[in-house]
Specification:
Keywords: Coiled coil. With 450 residues, the protein is mainly α. It is 91% helix and 0% strand. The radius of gyration is 75 Å and the shape is rod-shaped.
């Protein structure tokens, strides 16, 4: 701020020391007067587009030219424009030309040269100060523009970071939901696995119990087979005894038949030999006795045969019953073997299912571990983004603070510039009043001299 006040003081001093072109031109008029006084109205009417302008513009242009220039300067500028361009000027062209016009040539006296040097130095100082002010203002504007662009870029990066953070949050929420679903699926699979394990354990227990039953049945079957073998051996022995007895009976039958034949022969002999009957009666009695004994033995054998046949029939029935029981036991064994085979197949299938479930559980555990690793990496990335966002927020706050400081500086500089502009306007008005007073004094001097 003190530098600005010093700059304002320097500018004010330069402006106060600056001599207006009008004063030079008026001093030059005293030295070198070459124009012919003409009527102001005739000069303005000479302009090419004066008649087409409205009255308001005419008054504005006329007041501006009359306030800032003398009639001689206006006439000289008009003649100079016509000499340079070879045509009558328009109002706007005439104003531009007279603003850029250096005035009439005059004698280079020593005082004017010194004044000109002073004016040049003051102009150079004024231009240097103005250039430095412009450079400072442009530099400040460039800094402000750079800060604004940095802020816009940071805001854009901050918005992008917010978008990425929101995307990561949505991805994290989706991963959390997927993790929950996978955990529910894993709990369900674990429950099913426990159910399958309980079923498998129960089936193993059933199979063990059935194996024990099968072992007991095998033992019973072995015992029954041993008993059947013993009974078959007994039956074979009895069959051999029956065959032996039947062979004996057949032999006895043959003997009886032989004896019958002999008896018949004897009876025939008795009939034929009636004479020898008495001799043989004793023999016949003895033979009758032997026959009676043989008949008793035959009856006894027949009774034994009937008993044996009954026993054989009973044994045949028992054997048939045993065979039926063996067939039933064999069919039961086949059914039990089929059931055991079916259970073994089911156990194999269940073992395969359990293996698949173990594989799925291991795969799900691997997926869960991978998801946990991904979640940890996502969490680390989110933490990193949060830290970056915090640093960016700090940088943005610093940039905002710098921008606020620069805005304050710019506002203060604007205030200083407005003050300078007001002071310049005041100085301009002061210079105009001074010039008017000088012109009035010169005109009074001219009138007094004339």
């Amino acid at each position: 701020m003190p530098e600005d006040f010093r700059l304002i003081a320097d500018i004010q001093e330069l402006i106060e020391n600056t001599i207006h072109q009008r004063s030079l031109s008026t001093r030059g008029d005293e030295c070198h007067r070459t124009t012919i006084a003409t009527d102001d109205g005739s000069l303005f009417e000479k302009l090419s587009d004066w008649s087409t302008l409205p009255s308001v513009d005419k008054n504005n242009h006329k007041n501006f030219l009359e306030e800032n220039y003398s009639p001689e300067d206006l006439q000289l500028a008009y003649d100079e424009y016509f000499a340079r361009h070879g045509r009558i000027p328009a109002v706007r062209d005439f104003r531009v030309f007279i603003l850029q016009w250096q005035g009439r040539p005059r004698k280079n006296c020593l005082v004017e040269m010194q004044q000109k040097n002073i004016d040049l130095e003051s102009d150079n100082k004024f231009q240097i100060s103005i250039r430095s002010c412009c450079a400072c203002s442009t530099e400040q504007q460039n800094q402000l523009q750079n800060l604004i662009t940095d802020r816009v870029n940071l805001q854009r990066r901050f918005e992008q970071a917010i978008d990425t953070a929101e995307q990561l949050n949505t991805i994290n929420v989706q991963h959390v939901t997927n993790n929950g679903l996978l955990q529910n699926e894993c709990t369900r699979l674990i429950g099913e696995n426990t159910q399958v394990n309980t079923r498998c354990n129960r089936l193993h227990q059933d199979n063990r119990r059935k194996d024990m039953q099968i072992v007991g049945l095998d033992k019973e079957i072995v015992q029954l087979s041993v008993q059947v073998a013993e009974k078959e051996t007994n039956l074979k022995q009895k069959d051999t005894t029956i065959e032996h007895l039947t062979s004996q009976n057949e032999q006895k039958d043959t003997t009886i038949e032989q004896k019958d034949t002999t008896i018949e022969n004897l009876t025939s002999q008795n009939k034929q030999q009636d004479t020898t009957i008495e001799n043989l009666t004793s023999q016949n009695k003895q033979q009758d006795k032997t026959i009676e004994q043989k008949e008793t033995t035959i009856e006894h054998l027949t009774s034994q045969n009937t008993e044996l046949t009954v026993k054989n029939n009973e044994k045949d029935g028992k054997i048939k019953d045993m065979k039926c029981m063996n067939k039933k036991l064999y069919s039961d064994l086949k059914e039990k073997q089929g059931m055991c085979e079916e259970k073994e197949r089911q156990l194999k299938k269940q073992c395969l299912v359990i293996d698949e479930l173990h594989v799925e559980v291991s795969a799900t555990s691997e997926r869960l571990s991978n998801l946990e690793k991904g979640l940890e990496s996502k969490k680390d990335e989110i933490e990193r983004l949060k830290s970056e966002n915090l640093s960016q927020n700090k940088h943005i706050s610093e940039q905002d603070r710098m921008i606020r400081d620069l805005n304050d500086k710019v506002q203060s500089q604007d205030k200083v510039n407005t003050d300078l502009f007001q002071q310049l306007l005041e100085l301009k008005n002061m210079l105009l009043t001074v010039n008017q007073r000088q012109e009035a004094a010169e005109s009074s001097k001219k009138n007094s001299s004339s």
